[in-house]
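help with these tokens:
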Amino acid sequence: MAQGDHVYVNRYGGIYSHHGIDCGDGQIIHFGAPDWRTRRHISQISRDEFARGDEIMVRDYSRFFATLESETGRKRDPLQTASVELNKFWDGVRGLAVADIDHSSAAVITRAKSRLGEKNFNLLFNNCEHFASWCVTGISNSDQITGIWRAALPAAQFMQFNARSRLTDWMDHTPFGR
């Protein structure tokens, strides 16, 4: 781990992961709370408090930056692209839009520290992973939330197809459909 790294730990056997920014001095800035009764806020805590006995890992951004490259001939993941664009929009609404971004570790720490004390946690649009990715890339993004959408969309598409076929069947057997 190095100063400015986006770090994370898997909680409860990987049910979810908790994210933060390594300050390089044994401290991590994260969007969390000491317990479930306390309102989540961005704060600086020790590496041990952040880990809570779990292994700390470093986020690899190679896939994320590849998604942003539009001039390459690679096929882009439409759900990931939509998620990034939606999060860019919300960043602008919250005043967090970043234009020409400096990706140095010092700049990542500066961005993280600029939000210390913030309390507007939102699981879908402003969680700990959104915060840490914004610090590194200038765009709030959560692979966990994208994964939830990825899992939910096929079920929604199936329900839509099922409802459409039932409506079509019903229409075929009524005076309206003839």
